[in-house]
Amino acid sequence: MTPSAGRRFPLPDGFLMGAATSAHQVEGNNVSSDWWALEHGPDTFVAAPSGDAADSFHRWPEDMDLLRELGFNSYRFGIEWARIEPEHGRVSRAALAHYRAMVRGAIERGLTPVVTLHHFTSPHWFSARGGWLAPDAADLFAAYARTAVEVLREGVRHVATINEPNMMALMYALRRLATEHGWSALAEGGSTGGAAFDPSAVEPDPDVTRALVKAHRAAYTALKEADPDLQVGWTVANQVYQAEPGAEAVAAAYARPREDVFLEAAREDDWIGVQAYTRHRIGIDGPLPVPEGAETTLTGWEFYPEALGEAVRHTVQVVGAQIPILVTENGIATSDDERRIAYTARALASLSREMREGADVRGYFHWSALDNYEWGTYRPTFGLMAVDPDTFARTPKESARWLGSLARDGHLPSGAAPAPAATSAAR
Questions:
Q1: Are 386 and 335 in contact (CB under 8 A)?
Q2: What's the CA gap between 147 and 19, in Å, rounded?
Q3: Which residues pair with 192 in a beta bridge?
């Protein structure tokens, strides 16, 4: 059952309405990447390898055809550094040709391509050199960005250098703890040296944070020098820290290293990507659990669609109103597509409220276009389209048709959002 039409918010001219994927999560067989090595290494914490993923490396034309037929006008996808430069200094001409064909294919179908250069995965050789902490990491990433211009000049306007750098800096911190205490302590929320371990209390590695900002700035400069018309930014995982009464200073202290420093780095960019899924409540003593009785998703997150509008508002407060916003990810892991529609309707209503208040939002990309590999598991289904694991057949869900109709009509839901269903069952 789709939401009733109700009041609608007309989208501005040129608004990008689409869905998103990342290369490693949908392409399959990304054998030269550090994540592939991690998936197949001894004593890995990864529960399941990516394998063929959704086979989008071969089936991207079908993915784009479906998105266009559903009514979307844009597609955010990634290009894979490990495919383009599988060995240090050796560029694969075949990989570049593949991604050029994807850009051309999107444009031919009337889909505006938004391209991500780095979405969590790096070439294995880059990580073996020390990854983002290597002395020449920024130079290596800028060199990759210059190589990627060969793809981007096919007609890309918006390019994201790095997806969720705050989450990558957090991964480094978690890996350091795993080295010290073992992956089992992290996976189980167990103990480290006798003290209870709380993953939410971990801060992103500060050295990696500085290195990622430096790499982003180097790539930004390289891209703009190659093509001044490129619109360059990066995307941040917005955590929506909500302070309980009296905990405002605590919440601000959590937000600063985990989010705000990455938002501040975008003040010199052409746009900033907002990625929001749920909220995080902060009390005097730190993060609070999901409220008792609240509906949760397949990832265990609270069903809280209004996180999107709140993330946009916070981003404007930190970055400034002069930097345009793209919502580069927003969605829900659920096996109940009616809940996906309900979640997205309320999320978009919260977005339209912020736009009415003056937020310069120029696009919305649902995560994700396809049910895909979610970093160790295929269980959380975020996709607008189901993917058969054996045949790779794509089946659009009702949520895809509903959201595509909004894109085609050029409107977002507006006004009061319906109350959530009262349940604590994981969906």
A1: no
A2: 26
A3: 195
Side chain identity at 66, as an amino acid letter? Answer: L
Q: What is the DSSP letter of 141?
A: H
**Residue 182's pLDDT is what?**
65
Structure tokens, 1: 């059952």
Question: Which residue type, as a one-letter code, is found at position 131?
Answer: G
What six digits make up the tokens of 18? 């689409």
| Cα separation, 258 vs 170, whole angstroms | 8
Query: What is each CA distance from 252 to 244, 282, 314, 359, in whole angstroms?
Result: 12, 9, 12, 22
The residues, ordered by sequence, that sit 6+ positions from 90 with a Cβ below 8 Å of its Cβ are: none
Distance CA 207, CA 52 (A): 34
d(CA 20, CA 28): 16
pTM of the model: 0.94
The percent helix, strand, coil of the chain (3-state, each to 5) is 45, 20, 40
Distance (Å, rounded) from C-alpha 311 to C-alpha 258? 14
At residue 392, φ and ψ (nearest 5 deg) are 65, 15
Q: Cβ neighbours of residue 272 under 8 Å, at least 6 residues apart?
A: 233, 234, 235, 236, 263, 266, 315, 319, 323, 324, 325, 326
Q: How many whole angstroms separate alpha carbon 218 and alpha carbon 97?
A: 25
* pLDDT beneath 50: ranges in the chain: 189-197, 416-427
Cβ neighbours of residue 61 closer than 8 Å, sequence gap 6 or more? 105
Nearest residue to 232 (alpha-carbon basis) of 104, 363, 144, 114: 114
Residues 6+ apart with CB under 8 A from 248: none
Say which CATH superfamily domain 8-413 falls into. Answer: Glycosidases (3.20.20.80)
Q: Where are the domains of the chain?
A: 8-413
Which sign does the torsion angle of CA 62, 60, 276, 298 carry?
Answer: positive
